[in-house]
Amino acid sequence: MPWIILTVAGLFEIVWAFSMKQSAGFTRLGPSIVTLAAMLVSFGLLAWAMRSLPLGTSYMVWTGIGAVGAFVVGIVFLGEAVSPLRLVAALLIVCGLVLMKLSSPA
Question: What is the domain extent for residue 29?
């Protein structure tokens, strides 16, 4: 269960990163509210998962999901550049997440 909670926390991190971009520096009310709400949910779920998962594992997985997810959202929805080097970088983050999961006792 902690891994599911941590994954959902990471998904909310993607939401707040995207909505923060859409808020134009917190100058647009709707996306700003979504950003703050998603941050609260994401941090809350991260804290919940950390009750039974190690700090380093939890934080790395949470930020990794957010980083790779924001990368994908940027490409798919915002038209950001795709290059072989950027794809390799994202793949290396995913490999790190898988290794961290495999090495975790919980």
Answer: 2-103
